Every structure is written in structure tokens, then in C-alpha cells.
Amino acid sequence: MERGKLGESRGEGADRRSEPGSRKNGSAPFPYARMERKRFALDRLDLRFRWGNYGIRVLRCHLASFERGHVIAAHKHSEYEFHFIPRGKGAVIIGDHRFELQEGAFYLTGPDVVHEQISDPEDPMFELCLHCEIIPLEAEDSREWGDELEAQEAEECIRLIRTMPAVPALDRYHAMQCFLDAYRAWEEQSVGFYTTMKQTVLQILLRAARVHASPEAAGNIPERDMKDHRFRLATQYIEDNGARPLTLEEVAERVQVSPRQLQRIFRSEGETTFSDWVEHIRLQRICSELLESDRPIEEIALDHGYANPNYLYPVFKHKFGMTPSAYRRLHGVR
User: Is the pLDDT score of 31 beyond 80?
Assistant: First the structure.
């Protein structure tokens, strides 16, 4: 690709008026012009990462520009090359077919696809190029935290890329914007730079694959069992806030259901009532503290949601058949 880049002999301190993004005769600004400042910045990064059961290694990620009428002779690669046209006109010859290119076009040349590129004689062509290896890796049995879903999505995306016709199409999902996002991330070098770069590359692959995907190809994230989900949210909220008085109405508001519905959820999912669950959590913590400290029982009761410490005694005796003091003595705590 380098032979067709305009300004290859220009120094980095060249006159800004010659950059592709400069306005000429009132033309619109070119947002990708900033990528000309350090045109090989992203190419120099040794960016490689795992996505599902594939290894992605970025070979090139840059803005290329072509002089008027410039021809890049027929050639091929053993990897995948994604071509996006952000400005100008030209043509690409793939096999025996010639396709006209204009602003907003996208096409993919996969391994061993012979292609020849030609810039328009009057309107020079610019190209955003992502050239990468996609390497199958050994599958891992890791189903937690979404890894299985990621592997499925990666598999479907790579399948679409492998079967994508070598025919230019419109960049309908704005993959070109990801090149600019990646370059800005390189300029800023902010926290999370590697993760940002990985995400922008994956977005280019995904948005390119969507161009030729059928609506039925979209994957679905499994839906939650909402009763179980709300039960887990409610019990976690109780765990986190059990040291103060809690009401059914407060917890119901937090999990966005009515108090009556939350009570039904506790009966169906926990086989208990809301108040019994709260009491169970509090008594568990009180038992632990009775054995691990010598603090007065009244203080322990106040710290675990009993606004009236005297109320703890009948509740505790009903649950364990003894008073908190007897519980301590039973376990050898004086």
C-alpha cells in the first residue's frame, strides 16, 4: 500500500496547506486529516489480542492517500484487508470485475484475493486501511462472565467476514469513525489505551460484518429469569443495608416492583417472607458477633437493625431456644 500514498517524500513538518484535510475552494473539512500527522503511528503498535477463540493481530491501521490517477498494481495478501473510502473517487479491480469507488464505500479483500486499486484522474482517493491476521486458537471451557457469549459472537463475525463477497458496499454502520477514535486514543495515551484500541479494532470488524449480514444473523443475549434476578437484587440489598431498619416498601422501590409483588417473589424464590429473610440475615450476623466480641448485647442489637434492643431477646429466643447470653455461654464465651 505504501507506494500509493501521497506525500511519502514530504517531511512531517511540511506545509499544512498541502494536507488532505485543508480547505480548498470552500470544500468541507476532512476529519481524518489529523491522521496524516503521524501516518504510521498505529502501524507501529504491536497490537494483538484474543477475541473468543481467535487471535487478532493488527498489521496496519492507517490513512492512505493516492495521487490523481495513481495505480497500485494487482497484488494479494495472505491476511484480511479492510478498505474504507472517506474521501475522493477511484476504482478497484477484483479478479475480472471492476468496481467504482466513491466516498463512503467499503470493501474487503480476504486472503489470496487479487486486487488492483486506481485513483480517479481528477478527484484523488483516500483510504482507511485495517490489515490484520485472524488466527484460530484452541477453545477454552470458560462460560462465566460472558466469555461463552463473546466466543459465539466472535465465531459469527469471523464467519461473516470469511464469506463476505468481494464487492464494495456502503459503510452503513460507520466503521470509518473507529479509525479516528483509535488515532485520538493514541494521541491522548490515556488510562485504558490498550483496551480502547482493542475495542475500536473489534468495532471495525463487527461493523464491517454487519454490512452483509442478514437480520436473522443477529445474536441474542439470554434473557434473565426476572423473578430470580429481583430476588437476588433484593437479598443483596438486605445484606448491604441490614445494619439499619429496613421496610418492605424501601426494598421494593429499589428493585422496581410493588411491595405486594416483592412479597410474592420472596415466597416463590426464597420460600419465606420478606420479614423472615431480614430477620435471618440479622440474626446470623448477631450470632457471629456474640461469639467474636465481648460487646454488650444491646450495642450489638442496635448495630444490626434493632432500633429497640429489647426486641432482640424474644426474637432470638424464638429462633434459637435461648437468650443471647445463654448462646454465648453455650459456646464458651464469657
Answer: yes
Flag whether the pTM goes above 0.90.
no
What is the C-alpha to C-alpha distance for residues 91 and 121, in angstroms, rounded to an integer? 11
Domains present along the chain, CATH in parentheses: 2-217 (2.60.120.10), 226-330 (1.10.10.60)
Q: Tell me the per-residue pLDDT of 242-252, one tens digit each, with 9 for 90 and over.
A: 888 889 999 99
Query: What strands, in cross-sheet order, belong to the sheet with 115-119?
Result: 71-75, 115-119, 89-94, 97-102
CA 94 vs. chain centroid, Å, equals 34
Cell of 37: 500527522
Single-letter code of the amino acid located at 290 = L
d(CA 90, CA 117): 8
Say how far apart CA 58 and CA 130 lie, in whole Å. 7
User: Distance (Å, rounded) from C-alpha 27 to C-alpha 34?
Assistant: 17
Give residue for cell 469513525: 177
